[in-house]
Design goal:
The chain is mainly β and 281 residues long. It folds into two domains: 147 residues, Porin, CATH 2.40.160; 89 residues. Helix content is 10%, strand content 35%. It is built from two helices and 16 strands. The chain has a 16-stranded mixed beta sheet that branches. A hairpin with a 5-residue loop joins strand 4 and strand 5. It is globular, with a radius of gyration of 28 Å.
Length: 281
């Protein structure tokens, strides 16, 4: 009888401890004071973490490109670039005079650039980039059918218009020259664009062009380029504090070759403002 009573006492004691343990346990949840219904906050990397006072991780670092197609298909053999051959992306704040007129300039199928005219319409400016920041003076001749670009007193190029003038207010709009220097200017709207990016060199085997691109913020994790040309339409998705995904939003015509696939962007650990060019490879 004593053994039975002792056994019952032990069972009662264990059940009591388990009940007290469950009643005393606390689930800790971090809640944002501005949120309703006490929903937990999801901590994620966004533009607000990349852009901040004295901590501009977006514009003060190079972003190196690598083949990102394995994210879509694990069976793909990716292409690797080493050292100075590695294409880079550089981000800039868009700072130009108010009222400037923007053009997207396309050289053949190789490069896309953003140029603009301020109130001084005789000059043509490039957005800051590592390729060329030359200021050009514009001269139209022969009833706006011939375009001459001068810089520092030298003639840089002279081109004939291809086809008819399509915009009487902005005479630069149109196609100029002949192959291999065929160039086209189209108007582009910079509204709501606070940043732009530069792809500083050709991306071997890929159809994404080198050059400069205006960026419009879509949400806290996404930019999209503003482009007057279909092959300039890209999306940037932030996937980590040091990583983004660059996705083409276009297809190529049948007569043109090039890989239309995603690229990974990796942020360098060094600041551009604190290191030399050779420190990034």
């Amino acid at each position: 009888m004593k053994k039975i009573l002792l056994l019952l006492f032990c069972i009662t004691l264990v059940l009591s401890c388990n009940r007290n343990t469950k009643e005393d346990s606390v689930e800790i949840v971090i809640v944002n004071e501005n949120e309703t219904d006490n929903e937990p906050t999801t901590v994620s990397v966004s533009l607000s973490l990349l852009i901040g006072d004295n901590r501009d991780l977006l514009t003060d670092h190079y972003w190196f490109l690598s083949d990102g197609r394995r994210l879509v298909d694990q069976s793909i053999s990716t292409i690797d670039w080493m050292g100075p051959m590695t294409p880079r992306v550089i981000f800039y704040k868009l700072e130009v005079p108010l009222g400037s007129v923007f053009y997207q300039y396309r050289l053949r199928r190789e490069r896309l650039e953003i140029v603009y005219q301020s109130e001084e319409t005789k000059n043509l400016y490039r957005l800051e980039n590592s390729f060329s920041n030359t200021i050009y003076s514009i001269i139209f001749n022969d009833n706006f059918t011939q375009l001459t670009l001068n810089s520092d007193g030298y003639t840089i190029s002279q081109q004939e218009r291809v086809g008819q003038q399509s915009n009487s207010e902005h005479s630069l709009v149109g196609t100029w020259g002949r192959l291999p220097n065929l160039a086209e200017y189209r108007l582009i709207d910079p509204a709501d664009c606070l940043y732009y990016m530069e792809i500083d060199r050709e991306i071997p085997f890929f159809a994404i062009r080198r050059g400069t691109y205006l960026l419009k913020q879509i949400d806290e994790k996404t930019f999209e380029t503003v482009s007057a040309f279909s092959d300039g339409r890209l999306r940037l998705e932030i996937t980590g504090e040091r990583e983004m995904l660059l996705i083409p939003l276009f297809t190529l015509p049948e007569d043109e070759e090039g890989i239309v696939g995603p690229l990974l962007m990796h942020r360098s650990s060094l600041r551009i403002s604190e290191a030399g060019e050779n420190d990034f490879y």
